Amino acid sequence: MLIHPQFDPIAISIGPLAVRWYGLMYLAGFVAFLWLGKRRAASQSWHATSAQDVDDLLFYGVLGVVLGGRLGQVLFYEPGYYLAHPLEILAVWKGGMAFHGGMLGVFVAMALWGRKSGRTFFQVTDFIAPLVPLGLMAGRIGNFINGELWGRAADPSLPWAMIFPHVDRLPRHPSPLYQAAGEGLLLFVILWLYSSRQRALGAVSGMFMIGYGTLRFVAEYFREPDHGIFGLSYTVSMGQWLSLPMVLFGIWLMLRKPPVRR
Fold it and tell me: What is the three-class DSSP state of 56?
């Protein structure tokens, strides 16, 4: 069986300054957003979206991801811990970012940017949806490097079953890598191809919601469930409960009939 490499979470250390792999993965996601966004803006008529618009979208998006992701972790997964240790809420460098909270934070940020720039909410989200999955992939790789979000116990005969020594001696699924491949790379390919043609307003956003929600729901069956506000469950985890509304909202977006436009 494979053994988790137990990476040093600090990638670079210069005196008292330390750069962590987790932070570098977020940086990689932001760089991918910029590169893909500017390519997308240059090649298609997305309401005259410019390179400067992409820079602004990233700035708003980073605020939404960090604030929403951290608050999501606090409210959905560990309210008791953070109530007892309120200063830990600010320690984002230690990890602990909930995707669903980050998504809600980004929604608020995109609505504010859209209002400022004269674009509707779905015009903005249809543009950014294909730019997000590679950042999600980078984040899951960061989780793997940190030895976080390990998987459920696996059959020892599974060729890639992995022992996480800091957890126990059981062979487990390397679930962060599953999520990096599914919610990251696969979802990126689906959205990039789907959005390459004109779609009804909100359809690309709907495809993202359905795709992420479904892939996350499936991946949760290979991941050790988190203690959420509904308690610990191996049947329907907290991540699955939070993904179900995404899928339903995505289906609604796909079934409604707005005009086809950018």
Answer: helix
In tens, the pLDDT along 163-186 reads: 999 999 999 999 999 999 999 999
Structure tokens at 117: 């720039």
The single-letter DSSP state of residue 89 is G
Output the CA–CA distances (angstroms, integers) from residue 208 to 89, 191, 260, in the order listed: 29, 7, 18
The model's pLDDT over 203-255, given as tens digits with 9 standing for 90+, comes to: 999 999 999 999 999 999 999 998 777 777 888 998 899 999 999 999 999 99
Using a 10 angstrom Cβ sphere, with 0-12 exposed, 13-18 middle and 19 or more buried, the burial of residue 99 is buried
Provide the β-strand partners of residue 228.
231
The DSSP bridge pattern shows strands 162-163 and 10-14 to be unpaired
Q: How far apart are CA 209 and CA 49, in angstroms?
A: 23
- End-to-end Cα distance, the chain: 50
The pLDDT tens digits of the residues spanning 70-113 come to 888 888 888 888 888 888 777 766 667 788 888 999 999 999 99
